[in-house]
Amino acid sequence: MEVFxxxxxxVGFMKNAKKVGIFSAFMIIASLVLLMTKGLNxxxxxxxxxxxxxxxxxxxxxEKVRETLTQNKAYNGATVxxxxxxxxxxxxxxxxxxxxxxxVSDDMRKLLAxxxxxxxxxxxxxxxxxxxxxxxxxxxxxxxSILGILIYISFRFEWRFAVASVMALMHDVTIALGALALxxxxxxxxxxxxxxxxxxxxxxxxxxxxxxxxxxxRTIKSTHLDVIINESVTRTLSRTTLTSLTxxxxxxxxxxxxxxVLRGFSFTLLIGVVVGTYSSxxxxxxxxxxLNFSVSGFRENEAAQVKRQKERDKQxxxxxxxxx
Amino acid sequence: xxxxxxxxxxFFFAFLFGIVFSIPSLTQSFSNDTNQTKDSxxxxxxxxxxLDLQGGLHMLLSVKKEVALESKLKSIGTSVxxxxxxxxxxxxxxxxxxxxxxxxxxxxxxxxKVDKFLLDDFKNVVVKKSKITEGTxxxxxxxxxxxxxxxxxxxxxxxxxxRNRLNATxxxxxxxxxxxxxKILVEVPGIKTAEEEQRIRSLISKPAHLQMMAVDEDRANxxxxxxxxxxxxxxxxxxxxxxxxxxxxxxxxxxxLDGSMLTDAKVGHDQKSNKPEIHFTLNxxxxxxxxxxxxxxxxxxxxxxxxxxxxxxxVIQTRIGGGQVQITGNFKERExxxxxxxxxxxxxxxxxxxxxxxxxGPSLGADNIKASSIAxxxxxxxxxxxxxxxxxxxxxxxxxxxxxxxxxxxxxxxLAGATLTLPGMAGIxxxxxxxxxxxxxxxxxxxxxxxxxxxxxxxxxxxxxxxxTAIWDANVTTLIASVVLYFYGxxxxxxxxxxxxIGILASMLTAILGTHGVYQWxxxxxxxxxxxxxxxxxxxxxxx
Lengths: 324, 544
Prior knowledge:
With 324 residues, chain A is of the alpha+beta class.
């Protein structure tokens, strides 16, 4: 089966670069506004607090639970929501307790006893100091992976490629974070993992396109970057779309079947796969253009490198033959 | 058949390796029955399931350092008092306050004597002197080095003690380890009921500070009217009774002996009532002190105090030699057993507190396994079908690489004893989506070359060549992100980083080297007139 015909004409991606740029700028600004107004909804991993997951026999009497909790001083601010099914609820509170031998689940067992027969399936409690530590670590993880990637790509390509790919990356992450703010998803550790996966994934896509552009610079005669980009992006279009599709499939199955715990994680990835694919096709290459990447400059550089290498080889050969 | 080459041989062995070493993990069938894991221990190394998959209790504890420092200061105070008395120094107002041990030296002639033993016997203690109207005021504090050492000892000792206690319960494979500089990680898998969890928590939390203390019989009748402050002035403390909190005892604050002189503790039964009681054995020194004390205190009461609560306070009838002592009380069988465990395992220098706690019930763990397995199966099937439909035989070859990849992830994780968590399962699912990427890139390159009219051999060789740098660079960048995630992530997230990293590395082997080998091997079989079947290309007469 072939969806992307080989003889299909080269698509003029660069012609639309401006429109795409405006669209992306709009998305980024919208995301930033969302992040500033609504803000990220930090879950207990980062904000500290307690979640108790309770499963009732039959439908959970959520109103009764809420009522019981509001009457109790300690759990006044607790929020109660259904969790995955209508027999399960999650109780979230800001309270944490340092005592080893007593805990929120013991309290709940007593407090909620009149609401029906239930089982406490899980308790997560993160103290404020741990939450802070996890936040710092999370931020450091982001910074270091971006830094590592930047260095690697500069080393393998050229600094403009590195900057362009990291800008495309920021674009993706910002929009993904914007979506998290829009839907007020609990930002916990798995979400951080998802964001870092998006980093890797989006880069993966961009690198494949850039690799083709690098190859195009060597093989395509034109010195116009836009021509080279158009052809290279067109050539990788089938791969980009296919891989994105397979990844999208599996992430979608995670979202649909992976259970409540992985829902936020897979949702973030879904957004990331879509945005990452879009950015590697439409966003990353134009940035290269705007950074004044010069095809002839790159070729001269490469030629000079090859020349130097040849010179060195020649000298070594001469040296080995004893002529020097 | 065909050209056997090193690539296909390596691939074959990698495949075999993957299957052989993932079998032990697969046969344990992701069940959360911990008994079963114990039984099949002999069959080979297996993947450990994270607590989020098998259920259990995860706690991150910290030690109340200030208590450890305080008790260190107290022991310095005690030794200073002992030394001063031994050296016949006249002193007054020995106090422990504000992280300082202070006392007043009344006769300045003793200065050199005091300075000498302070210098000799109290290393790492900062001593300051100041003149007062008559004599000298000494104030001693812990040096930075001693503070660090004390805190470190407190945490290391807490790790050992908690580990001993949990091991003694016979529960399945509890983990107790120091995490970072000042945290203790406790993981207990396979907890089934709330009572079990409660029991573990109380085992961990008890300081288990055992003391034998003499009752201050001279003032005992005033205990109910006395304040704690007043008691302190007499060198006494007031502790409540275990069964009846209203009942109080006035005890000399310096104990006769404490739990450090204990060698064993067991549950025994009272011969008449058959009630459980705790029998413990003292070491030689303890037995002697205890014998001497009881000899001189016949007719008086002696209290057995555990964590500042009086368990029993019998009247001493006769000298008790041999170092055998019992604690009686209204114990339940389980409670008595746990107290014996705690006494045997030693006391905590400082109490612990919870910083993070995650408890997953077995049913939730099972649900997590089920959900993620379904996601893995469905995602895997979708990708497999897609590859076959889109690429024909080339897709089948890619699928072999994908299956080998899955086995390799499991095998490497089993051998490394890595832990599979829920995010780790998600990582495997994601790897399935991303590992085929390499083959998509390669297949697209091969098709491109075939369309340009290359021969099949050339298309395959050049296709792999052209695709290599892209795949390599893309994988390295993903690997960078996941390695960083491993170092900065905790618990379940580490599991995600592990599966992704192994998946990427394995895909280099299976998807690039492996499939290349397979092509070279079956090359003579590939029919250039059936490119639709082999590479999913519609134009059947493309190649020359």
